[in-house]
Amino acid sequence: MAQGFGNYQLDNNRIARIVFFVTEGRIGVVHGFIKKTQKTDEGDDPMNRPKKNSHWGSTLDEFLNEEGIREAAKAEAVTRVVAWQLGQEMKRQGISKARLAQQMKTSRAQVDRILKAKGNVTIETLQRAAELVGRQLRLELV
Questions:
Q1: Rg (CA), the chain
Q2: Domain span at residue 49?
Q3: What is the residue-level pLDDT of the chain in tens, covering all 142 positions?
Q4: Same structural domain for residues 6 and 64?
Q5: Of 64, 88, 112, 113, which is most buried, counting CB atoms within 10 Å of its CB?
Q6: How many CB atoms lie within 10 A of CB 112?
Q7: Which of 16, 40, 69 is where one domain is finished?
Q8: 97 within a domain of the structure (yes/no)
Q9: Within this chain, do residues 20 and 65 fall inside the same structural domain, yes or no?
């Protein structure tokens, strides 16, 4: 089972963090929150202030919807799962990053970006990589 922790930059300069796991090709999201920086005055003890978390008791879907990042978080999670599965298949077959890059007619740095799910990896790129390791990328509407 793979585990992950992702940071997602929101459009208002806040960072959402999602904790997830991957098992048998499925994603399970365990927790998500917005990273907040709290500044205090010198004489103000933050331990004495009551704290209120507006997301306490809400579901992860409600949280992601309220923050307007549900679709982005789902897309990122799916991309990371596909990247992880591709890496696992490469390891199983003994295919190096350099070899996959050569077969894809791209750079090893691009293969690194694909395997780390960094940057804007297209569906076409994932399909090509999957085919080169003898697998298929399957997308479906549910």
A1: 19
A2: 2-69
A3: 555 666 666 666 667 777 777 777 777 777 777 766 534 334 444 444 555 555 566 677 787 888 888 888 888 888 888 889 999 999 999 999 999 999 999 999 999 999 988 777 888 888 999 999 999 988 877 6
A4: yes
A5: 64
A6: 13
A7: 69
A8: yes
A9: yes
* Three-class secondary structure of residue 9 per DSSP: strand
**Residue 64 to residue 66: CA distance in whole angstroms:** 6
Q: How many domains does the chain have?
A: 2
For residues 45 and 85, state if they share a domain: no
Residue type at position 62: E
Q: What is the pTM of this model?
A: 0.58
Q: Which two tokens stand for residue 30?
A: 């365990």
Q: Measure the CA–CA gap between 73 and 16, rounded to whole angstroms.
A: 9
Domain end position, chosen among 25, 53, 69:
69
